[in-house]
Amino acid sequence: MNRRGLTGLETAIILVAFVITASAFAFVVLNMGMLSADQAQSVISSSVEESSAALMMDTDIIGTFSNTTGTQSAICLEKATFYVRLSQGDSPIDMDDSKVVITYTNPRCHTDIYDSNGTITTITPVAGDGDSMLEAGEKFKIVIDFTQIDKAAVDPAQGDMNNVYTHPYEELRIEIQPSAGAKLSVERVIPQVANIVMGF
Fold first, then answer.
1. Rounded to whole angstroms, how far apart are CA atoms 30 and 41?
2. Least confident of 17-21, 118-122, 158-162
3. For the chain, first and last CA: distance in Å?
4. C-alpha–C-alpha distance, residues 124 and 126, integer Å
5. C-beta neighbour count of 138 within 10 angstroms
6. Are 137 and 128 in contact (CB under 8 A)?
7. pLDDT tens-digit readout, 129-188
C-alpha cells in the first residue's frame, strides 16, 4: 500500500515537472516567434519605404522656351518649373542640397544639377512653414535653368553654344533622389513649341 502511494507521488512529481518544462519551452518558442514576427515586420516596412517613391509631382512641367521667332532649331527649353509634394503617408523629407541629389539626362548628357550654389536648380517652399523640410500638406517649387549647365558635359562638348541640352522632340529625364525612399523620375518628350511658356 505504501509503495502504491509512493508511486503515485512520484508520478505526480514527474507530471508536474513535465508541465513546467513544457510551459517554459512554450514560452520560449512563443517569445522567439513574436520577436521574429516583429523583425520581419520591420524589414517589410523598411523595404516598402525604400522601394516606394517618397515624392510626387503636383503639376506638369511648365517650360520656358527660347524666342520662338527664330528658326525651329534654335527653339529650345531654357527653364523647367514644377512642384512636388510628399506621397501619401510618407515621412518628412529634407530638401536641402546636402540631402537630395537631382540629375538631368538626355541622349547627349547626364549630369548632377543641384548644389549649394543654386545656379542650375533652385528649390523653394511655396506652401508650408518656410524651412527645408517637405512635410505633409506642404509643396515645394523646383526651377531648373538649363542654360547654366556646363556645356563641356555634353557629348560631344559644345563649347560656348547656347541651348545645347534641350532640343525639340528629345527625351529628357529628371531624377530626384531624397535621403530616404525611391527616386522620383520625371520623363518627358520636349514638345513642338507653340508659346514661349507652355506646359508639357
1. 16
2. 158-162
3. 100
4. 6
5. 20
6. yes
7. 878 888 888 899 999 998 888 776 665 555 444 445 567 788 889 999 888 778 888 898
CA–CA separation, 188 and 173 (whole Å): 7
Distance, CA of 24 to CA of 29 (rounded, Å): 9
Q: What pLDDT was estimated at residue 154?
A: 64
Query: Which helix (H) or strand (E) is 32 found in, with range?
Result: helix 2-51
* pLDDT attached to residue 87: 81
With beta carbons less than 8 A apart as the criterion, state whether 83 and 126 touch. Answer: yes
What are the residues whose beta carbons fall under 8 Å from the beta carbon of 80, sequence distance 6 or more?
61, 62, 63, 64, 143, 144, 146, 174
Closest alpha carbon to 126 in 138, 114, 144:
138
Cα maximum dimension of the chain: 119
Whether 104 contacts 119, CB under 8 Å: no
Burial class (CB in 10 A: 0-12, 13-18, 19+), 101: middle
